[in-house]
Amino acid sequence: MPQNEYIERAQKLHGKRLDTEERARKKAAREGHKQSENAQNLRGLRAKLFAKERHAQKIQMRKAIKQHEERNVKGAAEEKDPSNPVPAYLLDRANPTSAKALSSQIKSKRAEKAARFSVPIPKVKGISEEELFKVVKTGKKVHKKGWKRVVTKPTFVGPDFTRRPVKYERFIRPMGLRYKKANVTHPTLNVTVQLPILGVKKNPSNPLYTQLGVLSKGTIIEVNVSDLGMVTASGKIAWGRYAQITNNPENDGCLNAVLLV
Amino acid sequence: MATVLPPPSKRQKREEIERTTTQVDVAPILAPELGSFKANFVDSDGNQMTDVIEINFADATEKNISVLLNTLLERDREEFTPYRFRIHIPGKDIIVDQYPSDLLGLLKQHGVENPFETTITLSAEPQAVFRVQAVSRLAHRIPGHGQPILAAQFSPVSSGRLATGSGDNTARIWDTNTGTPKHTLKGHTGWVLGVNWRPDGQQLATCSMDGTVRIWDPEAGKPVGQPFKGHAKWVLMTAWQPYHLWRDGTPRLASASKDGTCRIWVVNTGRTEHVLSGHKSSVACVRWGGTDLVYTGSHDKVIRVFDAVKGTLVHSLTSHAHWINHIGLSSDHALRTAYFDHTKDIPATEEGKREKAKERFERAAKINGKIAERIVSASDDFTMYLWDPTNNGTKPVARLLGHQNKVNQVQFSPDGTLIASVGWDNSVKLWNARDGKFLKSLRGHVAPVYTCSWSADSRLLITASKDTTLKAWNVRTGTLAMDLPGHEDEVYAVDWSPDGKMVGSGGKDKAVRTWRN
Questions:
Q1: pTM here?
Q2: What is the C-alpha separation between B513 and B505, in angstroms, rounded?
């Protein structure tokens, strides 16, 4: 593999070889034979690598062929009668019903989103990535690379959490900043109970923080409320409810939240 | 004892003295002397109607000038026709469509310095003598169909009968005066895609997904004869032969089908007279013109004009770039209602009826004294073309650009002056029928507009849309006259009765709704 542009430079200075087009054409013509020779004769690791590449190519080829086929067969596919009665001007047209389903899906999603975020703390000042992450350099003395990040704010990791192999983990969540319990206040009953955290549902700053489990003010977490003895409308015992964090846990050292009912 | 009024207070006494002693300024109360202008009246063909006359600006309201013109044309008081005027600005090429309340101001605005000495040309458009009121309320909601309603049409005889076709394989006739179903026409084995009343209202034709066309007697609710079988695939639309063209004592019917052919049936015998083939794709629309020409528009982007007597091709109009969805005919309303009109006097004899139907057709189709029946075709390529096949052959008269999405339907107004087009871009557009110029865009719908229907006096337009509302528009001002929500789901078909009394609509919610004023 060329490390620099010496090939292009030479071509610009001295021009191309007189038979480059011929050679390129002949090389392209040999491609098929070369491919089949490789497929049949490679062994070991190289065979595996080749097979992987070839598999990906074949998937793409099959997709393209299928699309071409669909284009030719279009007439036959549209012959079948539509199921819902439609007037003459709507026959033979792409389904209006699927479009309606899509729009009603989008509308219900928007409604859901809107409802879920009617929370006690609606707006939160976001945390920037420079503030959250501290860069940790790894590698030997001269060739240090800075792709590792340490999270400087409290996080939640979950009970069955094991770190990635240390060489490959990008985000380090220090044990000292991990929280398992939250002081949850029930808004109407005005009692505060310490409840174990089940997971982080949404961090309003950044979806990346949600994935990492960063606990900041305004984050929605799920807590285990079986201690409170709450029962749902259908009679079942509720054991998980959402709560929103109301303090800055990195400053206080404890996690306070209010239950969302 | 008589009632004694309290004596006037000091303020009242003071005001009284002021009023009696000071001289009132009379000038602002009197009408200002604005001068006058000379008016030259031309009709829609450009011919001068009467002598040039001088009119005061102070008296120059549209109504007054209309009365003046009627008097100049020496008409009796009973024969007065209301006129609308369009002002040709002298010296320039501008034509103002809306008659302004301040004519002098308008002229000054357009730079006419001395209107007193100029002759202003006013082109007069006769309006329908009767006036249709905008429908405003839901009169009846009549359930009955088991599947969405796909087509609806009022009988030309009276607004008391409405026929609807539905996906439950039946067509039903409703009595709209009482809001009850009259007959259920069973027989089809596929969705009924179209219903079409005979121009004299004595028969009803229905076409269906099962490839047949059936004729029914609407008063008895029974089929007439055998179903017309012959098409290979479903039949999309039918068109009756106009009343004044019937030969051999029998009407004829044209039907358009997905198999690419159009068939002309002799209704009394049920025989196929001609098969108009040549289209390479589904024929979406068929219209029977008043000069015995059959116009068929197809998904193969071509409109074919056939001679109905011989069954041969006359013209092949190829200008569109995509499917033809609909064809509008300039004499559509006149042909649909044959000898029925607002005066409600029906001729006694057969010949009288034919004469009246022919006369109505000629009045609708004549331009400059010559019969020029025009068609406008709406297409999926977002444009429409205005054609005059009898005079202009295969060259379109005008190309109507402006829609941002497929155009679904296009209708000429009953008086032949306007074209309304509705489409998938949620807008309704109005065009001048003479030269195809764009007039107005009516916006209000929030989903594709499917169909439209004109009122009989051409002043109002009703549109039905996917957003479940009907909207009645006043086309003079270009504004919404009435918004008619009420349907629970998409509205597929709407029709304004030819006598203007009510509107009938049907859609996906399977219930027929009639609307009245």
A1: 0.63
A2: 5
